[in-house]
Structure formats: structure tokens, C-alpha cells
Amino acid sequence: MAGAPTLIGSVQRALHLLDAVGASERPATAKFLARALDLPLPTTYHLLRTLVHEGYLRKLDDGYVLGNRVDALGQRNTVQAVVSRARPALQSLRDELRGATYLSLYQDGEIKLIDVADGPSMPSVDLWVGVHEVGHATAFGKCILSCLDKPGRDDYLSRYKLADLTPHTVTDPRVLEQRLRLNRGVVADREEYLLGTACVAAPVRAPGLIGAVAISAPVRRYPALMADPGALSRAANRVARAVALRA
């Protein structure tokens, strides 16, 4: 039987202080924090000075509040938190439909692929061209673009050429716009990004977030992927709910 893990008490106490300050509706004084956490007052002052020096807390006239480092950490970890919550749904979809699965998000005007769940018998697509610049040719890119309003699509498309990746890639802006406006639910890429590969995607919508969940497979399996889009839509809904819960 494994022994108990070795813990560093000073780190625990510092983290508990951050929790207590964050939970307080008003600036928290050192005496209040010492009593709340059952810490000696000198120890509390020492930890608070360290946290203020490092930017995790700010000292005001009437107590302590969370510092800028905490805010920055939360912003950097937004994508990481989405990945953590979405991964089970991606893995479940991969195993159910036997194909590599993908999660992409629309952030700061860009289409970003943030996670892939694949396996030895379900390899991911060879991303030979950066997916952020070819949203017109990927299922998840088209899915995200179809969720944007017209000005949003125009902004993205004004910055990226409609590259001709395969004979099946749509490069006419008018045809692309018509298809994006008509897209509802599941969106397909049938050898538009890579010959021999098909991909289908469903939108992920949550407060403050637009994204897509997609699955790829050899093009011979395209009819099977499109025959039952329910699994893909359910996976996208699970991701959306997980993200909404975090928000």
C-alpha cells in the first residue's frame, strides 16, 4: 500500500490564503485571515508579504485582494480548462465512431485547433497546412465560420486567401458564402483539405465561446459518418455543457 504523499505545509498555507482572499466579498485583513485559517499572525503576515511581492495578492488600505497574477493565470488557463473538460467527450466519440476527433475554438478572430484525440488505429489527419488559415477547407473551420455573422466571416476571409488545396476545395467566395449561410448542424469536408480523407463537424456554442467538434476518417467511410450525425451532435452538446458549467 502506498504511503501518504509528502506535502509542503508552507505551499498549502499560501494556497489556502489565496482561496480565503478570493472567497471574501471585501478586502480581507491579516487578522481575519489568520483567524479563519487558524494560522499564527506572524506566519500569516510573512505569507501575505510573499504573495503581494509575487503579484498574487494586492495590499489595500483595508486589507488584501487578489492580484493581477491571478487574473492573468485564469486567462491563460481558459483553453486548458476547456481541453480538460472536453477531453472525455472527444475520447468517447473517437471510440464510438472509430475516428480521430478534434476540438477547435474561435478566438481573437482566429480558428484554433486546441485538442485532438486519436489512437494507433485512428490516426489524426496530417495537418500539412496550418488549420488557422484554411477555415474554408476544413469541416470544423466551415462549422465555425457558419456560426459567425456576416461581418465576422468577412473579417476572417479578408485575411486569408481561399487556397486551392485539392480539386474539391471551394475557392469561389460567393459559393462558399452561400454554403456557409445554408449550413445547419453537421458540416462536412469531403477531400477538401486532404485527398483520401473526410471530416464532419458539429458546432459548440456556450456563453462567450464558439467552437466545433469534428471527426475524421478515410473518405470511404464518409457515408457512414453522415448517416448518423447524432453522436457527433451529442458530443458537441456535452462539450458545450461542460464549458458552460465552468463559466
TrEMBL record:
Signal peptide: none annotated. Residues 8-68 form the HTH iclR-type domain. SUPFAM superfamilies: GAF domain-like (SSF55781), Winged helix' DNA-binding domain (SSF46785). The keyword Cell inner membrane does not apply. PROSITE patterns: HTH_ICLR, ICLR_ED. One of its GO terms (biological process) is glycerol metabolic process. Gene3D superfamilies: 3.30.450.40, Winged helix-like DNA-binding domain superfamily/Winged helix DNA-binding domain. Pfam families: HTH_IclR, IclR_C. Keywords: DNA-binding, Glycerol metabolism, Transcription, Transcription regulation. InterPro entries: GAF-like_dom_sf, HTH_MetabolicPath_Reg, Tscrpt_reg_IclR_C, Tscrpt_reg_IclR_N, WH-like_DNA-bd_sf, WH_DNA-bd_sf. GO terms for molecular function: DNA binding; DNA-binding transcription factor activity. It comes from the Bacteria. Residues 69-247 form the IclR-ED domain. May be an activator protein for the gylABX operon. This is Glycerol operon regulatory protein. It comes from Amycolatopsis methanolica 239. The gene is ssfR.
